[in-house]
Amino acid sequence: PGFVTSVRGKDFPPGAPVRLTWKPGITAAAPPAVPGADRTFIAQLLVLVKDRTGPRTITATGPGFSPVTTRFLVVDGTMVPPDEVGRR
């Protein structure tokens, strides 16, 4: 939680907006990804700080293709000693 993750897609219609959502959990508002001429996209999804951990299903929807899903796992950040700075 509290981290931005990268989602990549391939073989999507070029120029067709791709909306990403996941369940369970809260999907933070984000603009749609737009695949390029090579039919790929890279998008970001924010895992909200107070959102739940555990398995999720990411769903990509948009015009010109059927919904596509993939699995994703949200885990807590790494624990660090109190005198060090934690990073995810």
Question: What can you tell me about this protein's structure?
Answer:
- By secondary structure, the chain is mainly beta.
- The relative contact order is 0.31.
- Helices cover 0% and strands 41% of the residues.
- It has a three-stranded antiparallel β-sheet, with no helix packed on it. It has a two-stranded antiparallel sheet with strand order 1-3.
- The chain has no helices and five strands.
- The chain has a single domain, classed as Immunoglobulin-like (Sandwich).
- The chain starts with a strand and ends in a 14-residue tail after the last strand.
Strand content: 35-45%
Termini separation:
10 Å
Shape: elongated
Task: Evaluate the radius of gyration.
Answer: 15 Å
Annotation field: number of helices: 0
Features:
mainly beta, 88 residues, elongated, two-stranded antiparallel sheet, 41% strand, three-stranded antiparallel sheet, Immunoglobulin-like
What's the topology here?
Blueprint: E1 3-10, E2 19-23, E3 40-47, E4 54-61, E5 68-74
Antiparallel strand pairs: 1-3, 2-4, 4-5
Short overview:
By secondary structure, the protein is mostly beta strands.
